[in-house]
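Z., the sequence and structure:
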Amino acid sequence: MANTAEIDRWVEEFCPSYRIPKQVSLLVAAGVLEDHSWHNDASPSFVVAGSYSEQDDYMTRLWIDHPDPEMRQDDSYARYTVITSDLVQLYSGDVLSDALTALHNATGKDLGL
C-alpha cells in the first residue's frame, strides 16, 4: 500500500479544490496508479504503475483538471484527459469511467473496472 505522502502528492502540488475522485485515490492507495503530479504542469496526473519506461520516458497519463472549468488553464479543457507521451490523445471528456477505460485499453493493466 502506498504511503499518505504519495497519495496526497496532487494536493501538495496543486490544492484540494481539484477534488480528485475517490476512485482514483483508491487506485493510488492500492498501488495500481502512481501520482505523477507536478506543480509546473497544468493539472494533476496519474499513470498506471509499471506501465512506463523511464529510460524511454514513455507513459500514458490520466490528467485530471479542476472541476470548475473557470479555474482551468483553459476553460475548454475537459475534466479528464488520457494522453500518451508522444501526444496522442486517447480520451478527453467529463466521464471518469470512460477515461479509466481508455487508460486500461492503452496499457492493458487491470484497473478494477
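The chain has one domain: 4-107. Confidence is low (pLDDT under 50) at residues 1-7.

Let me know what you think.
H.
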